[in-house]
Amino acid sequence: MGERDPWLTPWSEVPTTSRDDIASRFEETVADGSLELDAVLEAFARTPAAPFRGRYHVFLSAGRTGALSAFLYDKAMCRVYLACVRRRVPPWIRPARVALVGTSDPAHTLPRSAAAFGGATVRTIGLQDGLDHCLESLSAFDPDAIFGFSSAVALLAEAQLAGAISLAPEVVLVGTDTLTEDARAAVERAWGRRPLDVYATTEAGVVAFQCWEGDGLHVNEDVVRLEVESGRVVLTNLVNRVQPIVRYTIADEIRTLDEPCPCGLPFRRVELLGGRSVDVWHLPGRAGRRAVIHPIVVRSALDRAAGVTRSSAEQVDGRFVVSVAGPADLDDVRRRLVGALERAGADTNAFALSVERARE
Length: 360
Fold this sequence. Notes:
This protein is α+β, with helices and mostly antiparallel strands. The chain contains nine helices and 19 strands.
């Protein structure tokens, strides 16, 4: 802002920021001047579920670029986040058993959403233990509400249609990544329920949610300011006093819906035109089977590897290639990946695993 008076500067002229800005200038983004990124990441690696200094809840986010950043919530921000999660559940449904499906890694917001379902029995089921274990756990738990990554819920719907599981949830909530039209149709065929979508980011919390009657997503305008600017989303978190996020840019495509929603909610509605697609990998598994590997398996392993600042993974010509940037020990990265892939059901002796240094 320089010498300009922030109270008199038009909002559209306030500079934007990005994930890379926050990753490279973390100390300037937090209100507590004693916080340093290295100390936060070190403490998180030791005890990921414990609040940093007993006050700050740490979340890691790599986004679509793979650039790893830390974001902090205090107790007040956590309460707002949980309240926004509760908004997504139709008011006439009070689930007794809720399954959080996708990740059990406390680095992410999903496992910490359990408190939003007060009074219900909540079970977090991660894909880090493999799809088969996830399906077995769900069958034993028999949830009447499923809340998970869109890509994870799509896998469950496929399993239901194939006869591998037989669940009957009253409500299906999806988010984090894009629910494709094919996946949406599969969920509706599997359970006879329309999946309720959400648009959320680690930086700004639950940005928008689909209600139980209309199409599109209602923006949580009491929590976040959402702008559409030159084909990108610009977000400002209105409630995080620990790490204020102001005019933060995300390369998502949305459009505003002008007509009122049948549900009567006054919040502005938007429609996602493009988003965060997730490719699930199929690798050789044990006993000659194929292992379904969700990207969260690799992500969780790399979040714990010291010195990884950016990463990517892809399946190319029978090889599984992981590229990392930063001063990471590639042998350590490989050990972590082998352990994570084996835990998820892959046979790492049956395919080539390449760990490479990414070009800066």
